Amino acid sequence: MATLLTTNSELLAGLADPANAAIWEEFDRRYRPVLLAFARRLGLAVDDAADVVQETLAAFVVEYRAGRYERDRGRLRSWLFAIARARVAAAKRRADPRRKWRGESALEGVADEATWSELFEAQWRAALLKAALAELTESTRTDERTLAAFRRTTLEREAPSVVAAALGMTVNAVYLARHHVLAQLKEIVARLEQEW
Fold first, then answer.
1. Angstrom distance (rounded) from CA 6 to CA 100
2. What local confidence, expressed as pLDDT, does residue 4 receive?
3. pLDDT at residue 3, as a whole number
4. Which end of the chain is more exposed for a tag (fewer CB within 10 A), N or C?
5. Are residues 5 and 50 in the same domain?
6. DSSP per position, the chain
7. 57 and 80 within one domain
8. 134, 147: one domain
9. Do 62 and 149 share a domain, yes or no?
10. What is the pLDDT of residue 1?
């Protein structure tokens, strides 16, 4: 999964061109999973969450092309978050119109703006980590056994001694492999944070 673009600036410049399908695909690849996870975490059914994501992405593109996004007023993901939040609230209202009659909030159960932001940020971090793992896996800098030791001890929470025996490594080599991969991941995540 090679990244077509390296920065948000390039992405945003490309979105201004309605005929640039590659840019839309990159934008979609980058933000759809985050928005979908966010909507699902807020209790929307799969189909409703997918609709919210589509509405959010479409609204973003329309507003961006109309010149409404101002970089100096905030991050791209903050703007997407605001659009997604409004779309989730609308979906919740549509799902249960009786709430309005009873005077209840469509966002009942979500305490405040900080909670919304924390949920969105958690999904954003998960997407960054997933992209970093994919990039690391595709790179030739790290051999498969080192990656396997990392995955099994860190992601699957297997005991280092079990992993060492299964992979024909020493326990110390497993710890070193995990440390090596974590250091590479930190570098990739830091770069992606700047690029995205």
1. 44
2. 47
3. 45
4. N
5. yes
6. ---S-S-HHHHHHHHTSTT-HHHHHHHHHHHHHHHHHHHHHTT--HHHHHHHHHHHHHHHHHHHHTT---GGG--HHHHHHHHHHHHHHHHHHHH-THHHHHT--TTTT---HHHHHHHHHHHHHHHHHHHHHHHHHHSSSS-HHHHHHHIIIIIS---HHHHHHHHT--HHHHHHHHHHHHHHHHHHHHHHHHH-
7. yes
8. no
9. no
10. 42
Ranges of residues in the chain with a pLDDT under 70 are 1-8, 96-113, 116, 140
pLDDT tens-digit profile of 69-125?
777 777 777 888 888 888 888 888 777 665 555 555 545 554 466 776 777 788 888
Structure tokens at 59: 């609204």
| Residues 48 and 30 placed together within one structural domain of the fold | yes
75 and 7 in a single domain? The answer is: yes
Provide the number of structural domains found in the chain. Answer: 2
